[in-house]
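We modelled the chain as a single entity of 312 amino acids. Its sequence is:
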Amino acid sequence: MEITYIQGDKKTILVSSFSENNRLAASGNLMKIEGRSGCRIEIFEKGDRLFVRKFASTVSYNQRLERQKNKQCLFPGPELRDLSFFTPTVYDEGIDHGIYWFDMDFISGEKYSSWLIKLNKKQLDHFITEIIQYFNKSILHASLVEAPHDIIQEKLHQLMASLMNTNGLDSGLVKKVIAYLSNIPIGKLYVGTCHGDFTLSNMLFLKNEQICVFDLLDSFIESPVIDYVKIRQDTFYKWTMHIENENNQYSTKLIQVLDYIDKMLLQTFKEDRVIHVWEHYLTIFNLARILPYSKDQKDIRFLQNHLNCLLP
């Protein structure tokens, strides 16, 4: 049986083996999915074609989702077109009861965890090369500019308010996070190609070795360093593995594979001065930004434990 996954905002849903008796009428809805950000995904069929419709969570989120749609249409850009990455084609957009939506291809592929553990050494090294080339090319075509401290400061104020208004967090840790992030690094930063949420959970792996990436985010800093931090969220911190409860007979092998990918990333970019200056700061920022969206206590403990380890 071919496994088909649709993933929306870090929530993975298995959608497999549609049969005639569980399909709805043409143009009917097949499934509704809601992700962590509140955005809703619905899977429709029209004639013989399946497509995905993504809705903004609220009217206030409309413009942001439209920016994400525009980013998806342009990604990955001409400088990266020779790599294996692609995004689902966007077909249509509109407003439904004041809520913005857009339609895109339904992509059939395999989830990162089941795909990675099946790879041999040569195949795994090829995937790692694609990831490394994604960053190399993104950095090569990026601009090196003075970090936008005003934008970072504004986003930090938003994060502070969000953390302070979230119940159940370690108040002492929140104060330490805010104090640390208030000291914004001095130095230049790459600005250029940025998926915004470049995690393994936002990739589907196809039989033709193409990699579908989706759930692009409009990041407060459009920088390849953001994507580097995001991919290491999975390869080093194992965030997706944690939230998807990837604890089975294959979890040991998956951890070994993720560790190997992470080792190769560190080895490749250890001399990059910009990544060296910004990675630690943006990692703490990134993990702290996940906290207000986390409702499960085990997720909160996971994030707080890592933040405690990262903070001086």
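As a brief sanity check on the tokenised model: The chain has ten helices and twelve strands. Confidence is low (pLDDT under 50) at residues 1-27.
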